[in-house]
Amino acid sequence: MPQSPRSTYGSPSAGDPYLPTSGNSGYAVEHYDIDLDYRVTTNRLVATAVISARANQALERFSLDFAGLVVDRITVAGERPRKVSQTARKLVITPAVPLADGEPFEVVVRYRGSPHPIRSEWGEIGWEELADGVLVASQPSGASSWFPCNDHPSDKATLTLAVACESSYAVVSNGTLVSQATRSGRTRWLFAATEPMATYLATVQIGRYRTLDVLAAPVPTRIHFPPQLARNVATDFERLGEMIDLFSRLFGPYPFETYSVIVTPDELEIPLEAHRIAVFGHNHVDGAHGSDRLIAHELAHQWFGNSLTAGSWRDIWLHEGFACYAEWLWAEASGGATAEQSAREAWDRLEALPKNIEIGDPGPRAMFDDRVYKRGALALHALRQHLGDATFFAALRGYTLAHRWGTVTPQAFAAFVAASGVGEAVDDILRRWVYSRPLPPLTVV
């Protein structure tokens, strides 16, 4: 029986069951060029997004994820579309001339409004007003709260971002600060991220921050913080360089040109990672190293999650398991509990909890369940025990280098570990720890 021709209407989503309405697999974005003119005092935004993409199929129409803002004008390849419709979460665009399979195209969207977070089953995500500033935390699907995009981690793209706002505020965003110019009480900041990144990792942070350069090498590192927290910040982040050195030795070179930390004046439930950036609330800074574990966790995400990004949300253990294990590695290297002790404590806690999820496919509601984090870390510890340190960390370094700035799968990770000649053992360890519900016994070495 002949197959029906492929629809030229594109796909309604990226096909991820965890985010059934997000993304679009009919095209791939290569670059976002976003220009934001924002009024902090009134939360008013006027913006233009230029999206450079390439069709993955013949397209008579396609969609962009976009929520809560008003479109003023759209062009595709310099022409007004034949039709545009906007729903609560999508812009559906019918270009004047259909796009051919493989054809590059450019979409320009001019828009405005009062950006606000998107409601999701994981809470409110995206653009959020602080008491005096802005925080953007979009994991997993909140990027569309402030720019039109293909909002799925399988479609990574480079980013240029300009933000203009009142000059009394500092702006921090992804990439390198290219320029900063002030005129008539407003300052325009221009950033460029030359490495492909997932949309949920794009961020804008606005506040009355002081900036401190804490490292020049091997990775230029800055901390942005409220002036009243200067003493606590200086104490709590004084070992950041040691963490970068440790993880660079174990995981391979730091994957980006810079690293920035923001400490907001507001309290945050948890710290947040973004491309080249980590964000902490004032409650995470106590001047007594009370958040070393969290600082190590967010730093490790630059390798696992930001450089190497899972192409499907069901594989989130590839982000969180590694970041959690990095906490244990830092504790061991800095004179705290050994990784073996941390593993035993985690196993004891997991043993007391229900064994009703498989962390290799936990379901959307359990994506951020602590069992995904801890059991993912235990899987890595089991691999390390089996392979020995030299083989295990050599495999990690090869894995991060081969897939730098790319999209990864559990199969890609397993292949690097199995290259040591223990393929069947690796498959068995991952099957028991990642793809089964019963909690395996912890091997003591």
Describe the structure.
There is one protein chain. 25% of the residues lie in helices and 31% in strands. α3 (292-300) packs across α4 and α8 runs antiparallel to α9. It contains nine helices and 22 strands. The chain is globular, with a radius of gyration of 22 Å.
Q: Any key phrases for this structure?
A:
single chain; 445 residues; 25% helix
Could you write a compact summary of the structure shown?
Helix content is 25%, strand content 31%.
User: Please, what is the average pLDDT?
Assistant: 95
Note the total helix count.
9
Structural class comes to alpha+beta
Q: Low-confidence parts lasting 5 or more residues at pLDDT below 50? A: none
What is the first-to-last residue Cα distance?
A: 58 Å
Query: Shape, please?
Result: globular
Instruction: Indicate the radius of gyration in whole angstroms.
Output: 22 Å
Please list the strands of the largest sheet in the order they lie side by side.
Answer: 4-7-2-1-11-14-13
Overall number of strands: 22
What share of residues is helical?
10-25%
Query: What portion of residues belong to β-strands?
Result: 25-35%
The largest sheet, given as strand count, sense and whether it forms a barrel, is: 7 strands, mixed
